[in-house]
Amino acid sequence: MSLRERKKLAAWRAIRTAALQLFEERGFEAVSVEEIAAAANVSRSTFFNYFASKEAVVFDQDPEQRDHWRAIMAARPADEPLWDSLAAILVGFNELLGDRIPLQRRLKDRSPALAQSSWDVVGEQFLTDVREWTASRTPEGDTMIATLQLNMSFAAQTTAYQTWGADESFDDYLRRLKHCLHQAGTGAMSPPASTSPS
Amino acid sequence: MSLRERKKLAAWRAIRTAALQLFEERGFEAVSVEEIAAAANVSRSTFFNYFASKEAVVFDQDPEQRDHWRAIMAARPADEPLWDSLAAILVGFNELLGDRIPLQRRLKDRSPALAQSSWDVVGEQFLTDVREWTASRTPEGDTMIATLQLNMSFAAQTTAYQTWGADESFDDYLRRLKHCLHQAGTGAMSPPASTSPS
DNA sequence: CAGAATTTTGGACTGCGTGCAAATATGTAC
DNA sequence: GTACATATTTGCACGCAGTCCAAAATTCTG
């Protein structure tokens, strides 16, 4: 790893930690990009060299994390049913994010702007990667069914996130995620009536 | 309907038609709010009185439409399974939107900014209304399962939209939407292998 | 150490979205 | 219709996100 690369990574992390710190202290909207840059000892321009937008600094993942989830994807056996793979990938991804998710949650709760950022939890990069991965594992004519399963797995993820009560732990969240994935897998209308656990 | 209300509606429509016209001619990004306001014979301030953002003018629905989809929601029998209701509501909503959807599609295809607006197809208002409707029909402990079904129905909608080929008609899109809803209802992993129709 | 390649920086610029107070239009009561 | 209350429109100023570009600064290569 060359000096350049090390410095790049360091700058990326300096910006992100500075930003998150400020966001936690004063809320997303109340912090300007200028302030973030200043806190990270970088120019405003440099901030935009690393992050496409102010929101990206909340949702983008550490470059090293990216390698991890790519490994997770690559590890799925080629003959595994798509849905099972997607479920495993999403769970793995969430475990990977770990304690960063609560932070995102805290910020979102306080910020209208962040609240309706298209990307919840899963950042832009992961979305792109998992789309690509799905496409690579989908035979010619099945692209619709594959897209549907992909979107359904995200629906499960979103649901777990949305119904994550303020008093619940991260493990509770993970459990619910798995439950939602299972439920989505077996079908939305499978239970004729009340089948809500825990 | 008072004069005020009639004028309001007229202004709303004037702004939207002017905006859509300009967007079609020159693309979403290339048109400024000032230009839209000018084309609609209104001040810039007034534009923001009616639309919360430049994007909202693409996704917000005509106030009268809102009454229509509310009627659709109200018409669902109280004892119908949630999933069936949601499916019917979404189909009804899309039929209602009708030829406006292709327009949105055309704009989105040309505009990166629009492309990743959180709201695809279904605008903010419909989202809010259908959330509220769902909540009103959900017993105390079933909020997670209800949220999941809601999100899954949107996943089906999104999928139909994403896989809508440029050469396909609006009816093809509607057909695919129904198919996706059915598929999502019976479960993501139901087909062990290739089961893609048409 | 010299020159190529990449990154950082500052500065100017466009345009969205907000806030506010003055002007204008509509509704209401007499 | 005149007078007053209420709602809407308008202009103006402001902050700030995001883009572009050319000049510095830094790292890489030999």
From TrEMBL, chains A, B:
Arranged from A to Z, the UniProt key words for this protein are:
DNA-binding, Transcription, Transcription regulation
**Occurrences of domain HTH tetR-type (ranges):** 9-69
Q: Please name the GO terms that the record assigns under molecular function.
A: DNA-binding transcription factor activity; transcription cis-regulatory region binding
**Coiled-coil ranges (or none):** none
The record's Gene3D superfamilies line, in alphabetical order, gives: Tetracycline Repressor, domain 2
Q: By its UniProt entry, which PROSITE patterns does this protein fall under?
A: HTH_TETR_2
Does the entry feature the keyword Transit peptide, yes or no? no
Query: DNA-binding region(s): which residue ranges?
Result: 32-51
| GO BP field | negative regulation of DNA-templated transcription
Under the heading InterPro entries, the entry gives:
Homeodomain-like_sf, HTH-type_TetR-like_transc_reg, HTH_TetR
User: Origin, by domain of life?
Assistant: Bacteria
Q: Which PANTHER family match?
A: HTH-TYPE TRANSCRIPTIONAL REGULATOR RUTR, MYCOFACTOCIN BIOSYNTHESIS TRANSCRIPTIONAL REGULATOR MFTR-RELATED
Q: What is this protein called?
A: Transcriptional regulator
Originating species: Streptomyces bingchenggensis (strain BCW-1)
What lineage does the source organism belong to? Bacteria, Bacillati, Actinomycetota, Actinomycetes, Kitasatosporales
